[in-house]
Amino acid sequence: MTAVHQFVPALLPRDATGDHTRAVRDALRAAGWESDIYVEAAHDELRAEATYFEEYPGRARPGDVLLYQLGTSSPVAEFLLGRPEPLVLDYHNVTPASYYEGWEEHTAAKVSLAADQVAALAPRAVLGIADSAFNARQLEDLGCPETAVVPILVDDEVVHGVPDPATRARLAADHGDATVLLFVGRISPNKSHQRLVEALWYHRRRYDPDARLHLVGPAVTPGYAEAVFAFADELGLSDAVRHAEDLSRAELAAWYADADVFVCLSEHEGFCIPLLEAMGAGTPIVALDAGAVGETLGGAGILLPESRPATVAAAVDRVRRDADLAAWLADAGRRRLGDFAASTTRRRFVEVLSGVTGRAAVPA
Q: Does 4-149 carry CATH code 3.40.50.2000?
């Protein structure tokens, strides 16, 4: 029996990489392959689904293929560099260390190490699977001998959430008819939340004095998050910027459904799952053309060449005032979302891996 075993630094619930890893395992098993998950750490909720990576040598069998979910630094990378089995990288991108310098030096050091590990692993892999062509190019530049693009596996129910009625009613009552800009993603320097605050400030001065900015996501870089909210206070926007995190799927769906426009000004994205969530909610998208954002959008949104406040605010106002345009964007998003259907991405992932079984490892 063909065996493709996955390795991941941490297996976490309600986490894009964790959900992807389990979906890959299920797809491989459904195809008749043996597939287990090996980890450095696992959340208590998922502990029964994982085995510590140090135990793999005692379970290794001839013909095994090792698949590494790569998006952060981990001792797992060094372990895999020393293994003789064929290695496949499933690359989810690493945020450049420069974004964290001056904010969190320990995070800058961690992602710098991750970049070094990618550079060491890429030439050793028999195949690099990337969420986007943007990510694939990075692997190719580092010497990965072969790459394939397969979008991250996302369950259909994640991108087609049913809004919680109470949450949606509460949000609507809070802001009334005001324009609502929404961004979903961790509060981290590469996401450029300060640009969103600037766009809100300009939009309120030029178009809608009551406009609001809703930010959903964990403040994973505390110093940066504090600076963003302090910046909003300095601009007199403390009552216009609302932050939430740890939402249920139904609550998150309500925040999407409540918004007039999903605005992404992130400078570095390897894929950007919230774009799919916005498409599923029918929320029109305005986004900066950076990283893999344009690739993921596939024309289903207004793509901006720059993030100047006047440019962003004008695009948001255009969507807000033109009902036909908003409806067209929402429909285009739903059509684009069909390209990421779970059945399609799972089948594609298995097809790609079928081509590496039986191959010899790349020599060190």
A: yes
Q: How far apart are CA 98 and CA 117, in angstroms?
A: 17
Domain chopping of the chain, boundaries: 4-149, 157-339
* Distance separating alpha carbons of residues 330 and 120, to the nearest angstrom: 42
What fold, for 157-339? Rossmann fold (3.40.50)
The reply to whether 4-149 and 157-339 are identical in fold is yes
Give the model confidence (pLDDT) of 78-131 as tens digits: 999 999 999 999 999 999 999 999 999 999 999 999 999 999 999 999 999 999
Tokens representing 92 are 């989810």
Per DSSP (E only), the strands in the chain are: 4-11, 37-42, 51-52, 65-70, 87-91, 127-130, 147-149, 180-184, 212-216, 241-244, 261-264, 285-288, 302-304
What is the token pair recorded at 164? 């919680």
Q: What is the pTM of this model?
A: 0.93
Residue 283 carries which side chain, given as an amino acid letter?
A: T
Q: Write the pLDDT tens digit of every residue in 251-266.
A: 999 999 999 999 999 9
- Which one, of 292, 358, 344, 340, lies nearest residue 88 by Cα? 358
Instruction: Decide if 292 contacts 137 (C-beta within 8 A).
Output: no
